[in-house]
User: Fold these one by one.
Assistant:
Number 1:
Amino acid sequence: MITSNRYHLPFLGLLLLLVVCVIVNIGLGSVKIPFRDVMTVLWGGEIEKETWQYIIQNYRIPKAITALLVGAGLGVSGLLMQTLFRNPLAGPFVLGISSGASLGVALLIMGSGLLGGILTSAITSHYGIVIAATLGSFLVLLLVVVVADRVRDTMAILIIGLMFGSITTAIVSVLAFFSSSERLQQYIFWSFGSLGDLSWGDLGIFAAVVFLGILLTLFSLKALNALLLGENYAQSLGVNIKKNRLSIILATSLLAGSATAFVGPIAFIGLAIPHLTRQLLNTNNHTVLFPAVVLFGAILMLICDTIAQLPASQLSLPINAVTSIIGAPVVIWLLVKKRKMVF
Amino acid sequence: MNSAKKHKVLEVQQLSIGYEKRSTPLLISKDIDFSAHKGELLAVVGGNGVGKSTLLRTLAKVQPLLQGRIAIEGRDIQDLNLRQLAQKISLVLTEILPTKNLTVKELIVLGRQPHTNWIGTLSEEDIAKVEHAIHQVEIVDLLDKRCYELSDGQLQRVMITRALAQDTDIIILDEPTTHLDIYHKAKILKLLKDIAHRSNKLVIFSSHEIDIAIQLCDNMLVMQESKTVHGSPKELIKSKSFDHLFPEDLILFDSNTESFKMKS
């Protein structure tokens, strides 16, 4: 009567879909590579054309894994924030993590230009940007955690996070106002997001951080379910609110912060994936939602990336725009079709 | 009930309740003394703002006490951690659920959290306890409904089932009968009496239904700004504890009918 296995089938389907999405994502791109050759490389074989082998091994596979990690990480952090704040509008960036990262990168790209060309070579480097984004989001996060420790009311943390976001956004616009058009363009390109810039080495670091965030989430699942009843009930069920709140915030910042640092601020995924999952599975149980969100996030991100590549053409679209263009209509359609929001 | 079989489960001594402010604590009520037993239905009554909810929240350690001692089975609640406390006391609060999309079943199962492992896996014992609670409150027909589909009375019974599934010696309910019509008020209170006597639990609830509480409860705690008195309804009527509970310009307690009457 109490337990049921009615989720086995959807999970099997999602897993299959994920595998298909990974293969399609790797198979398509600006260079047309025959499907047979793609599969050969994926199974660890060698193919005649070395350039194709190089493209698949060092560009397409890392990019697919990046998309997978970003989608899963942002999806989970969105779920965490929505439950912690019991607010369907919350996403991974409500605590100001992405604006913190933006501020870091803006300071690096535009601020250093204002100060003079001492760091010019460092700015353009990929690592400079990753480090700046990490520092930026880490500082904002540190402020939020310090505040969270002092404030009893969780909703106050939400507002404070939004305020931090406003402040950093304002500073970024001031910087933009005074910087040259090339610098501005460079910053804007970063804000479009890019999944293709990660080497295998970067990917290792990224995967480790995401794994840590997922692990923290795993240990918060029980508390998350209790939080569905509100904080007082959760506490009466033996949940230590402050401790769990901190680990939830930490998990979110690891997941969303690392994604932002490596691929830029990816909009929408974190907000939409949890809604999509709840609508389709019609449950609020986090032990079901969490793995489903991981799978859905990875799948949607892979699909968006495949589309952003504009297969068989030399062009590609900014990933940050594609996620919204593809994702938003899906969520709207689901809400209209079901007529009732599951939250 | 045979007094020799009584099992004292809650003891409150010289308790002061209120809110800790930085400089001076805001005292709401003081000198609260009583003890309560398993299998007892205890009502906390008093006017608005006299501290009924504060007392219940303090008993459940949702907020700290200012002075005095609260002991559960002889152990000071300060020495119990949250999980241990959650195995002793379950709560039914007045607050609205943030998500009403849970099914009744999911909601009741959450009551087992203090007993389950780190990820909340249900053992056979957990499932048995949940099913027992569901049958005792007779809500089998509601199980697959979602909370937004329930009436206020049904939701209240579901919340009580959840507390029952938590399987604690003490169940504390904050105004469980607000928003209900008189029939459903009686139904909830009858259910609470049933739970206290049949399942041998201590059930403490705050209420404005003094008339019904006098008829149903084993003991009552009458809170006033000046003092708090504890006793059986009969003792309290005899000692005229209800007579000065409210300002006497509009209503008066009539000890013959054991209820409040409009002043004529």
Number 2:
Amino acid sequence: MGEAPNTERDAQNADARQRWRLALPAVTIIMVFSILPLIVVVLYSVLTPGDYGNVRWVFSTEGWFSVLFERDIFDDTLSLSDAHLTILARSVGLSLLTTALTLIFGVPTAWFIATRPPAARAFWLFLVTIPFWTNLLVRTIAVQEMIRSEGVFNRLFLWLGLIDQPIQMMFTNFAVLLGMAYVFLPLMVLPVFAAVEKFDFRLAEAGYDLYASRLFCLRKVILPLVRPGIIAGSILVFVPSLGAYVTPRIMGGGKSMMLGNLIEMQFGQGRNWPLGAALSITLTLLVLIALIYYTRLTSGRQGRSHG
Amino acid sequence: MLDIRDLTKQFGKGDSAVTALHQVSLSIAEGEFFTLLGPSGCGKTTLLRLIAGFEPPSGGALVLDGKDIALMPPNQRPVNTVFQSYALFPHMTVAQNVGFALEAQGRPKAEVARVVEKMLALVQMTHLRDRKSAALSGGQQQRVALARALAPQPRILLLDEPLSALDMKLRKEMQVELKRLQQETGLTFIFVTHDQEEALTMSDRIAVMNGGRLQQIASPRELYDLPENRFVASFIGESNFLMAQKLAGMIEIEGSKTALPSGFAAAYDGPVIVMIRPEHVVLGQGPSDAIRLTAQVERLVYFGTDTHIHMRLRDGTPLVARVQNALRGGAIAKVGDSVPVAFPQDALRLLPDTEA
């Protein structure tokens, strides 16, 4: 009789061990490829920069300090780092604008596709996904080709006589915005499409029957119900925009840098790895804040609407 | 009140065009419970959608209170719909659903609240006013859909097979409920259904449709007693169809004759179709003016209140008689028996021999 609990406990232990063994590959992958690099980044952010890149193993908060402040070379006075703040603000601002722009173009596109007959839908979706198979660099340079001084638009406008000399569009915030909006547009279209496709159009019909104007129907019936898709699309666009590197590099050059480029600089010619690491963590935190905000937005409304 | 004149609807263009409605004309009176009845694909739902304004007609007029509304958008027509799927807004509460139309019209908040309360009381849903509509049972959703469509006080309420999603018991309850609501509000109802029993029990008048055409418009009783054609006769209730000869004011079936029932003028002599309801077929001699034949019993089906006797006439025509079961009666007939059957003269209906 005294044996029974023991065998049960043994069985439980064996079961737990078995579970650990099964989880081990996944846990290893997460540790090695996700947690460990993050620890390295956090560690490097509190060390002293080496003379030729890399770090010296001396504790220092200088990296974190430089994220927002700069020390005058001559009199050692402290001031807010204008350059860093500008880039930070530009990153957040351009990412928000990119999200807005992809919303403006992506939602009607998704709506259009979702309201086609099923056979045609596959075709339109195929068109939207083509950019995914194309190299990011190639896509970005294609946009550049459109707006550079001797590019398609400037030549067309010159030929039409709308302008006397080419408009400088490259290496401006506009160029970065345009490039990012183009590159990230499919990430908005797809989730919104999925939401609109699920939308029961009889509800719009019911609203229309009940004296609602088209706008009232859109605001009160359609938008609340496709909202989860719009929020998902916004996350998918905003998060990679914030950390974008290739597009700002090509479209913005040195003039219109974003956070990703600033970080790259610290690891390259800046030779300030701790600052680069600190900036990286700052970026991660910004993304985290955005995600928490978005999750609140969805779970709050959705939970109630399906209650 | 509502005049429908030569209303036609075509879907598609050119060779692939399908005509869903063929020049339908009918008038609906104020306060009437009017039913569009027919099998699926007969055009009844298309007609309803045209009245609601979801589809523009291809031709004809739709005159409401003296004004042609055929091309008016649905949000301007004083007509509301109870949808087959209910189409309640899943992200809104019961009260928000009911108040939707009034808010869309921009009525003041106090008025919206007052009307919503009144409507919720009318359909007995006040206790669930703050429940999300997705969390309601089918019958409750039905009530909310009704209240939502009634709230803006439309001139006509359109109901698109609103009971088809409910189970039998609930459907019977809602039939009574709907009729009560219609009488209480005095509103004109246009009700679409494929269920003939539903149509017969609730309607003031019924329009039977088939293949996009009107077959007959009549009161339930008239429709059952005096169907104008074979389609109406077979769609409403059960019927026996018999081949007969018409000759000099008499009709003859398998050699047995009787005088032409009154009301069926002799236009021409020759073959006609005669219809008789199973409950009017008499087993035995019947009255003196009856047509008397012999039939062979093939099958007996017991229904509780009555028994259906499936028989065959000498020429092979199937015949069903419905005989009420007596409290202590023995067997009415046995399978294989040859029995005398009689068709009383006043139970016979002559139908035009146009549709097979």
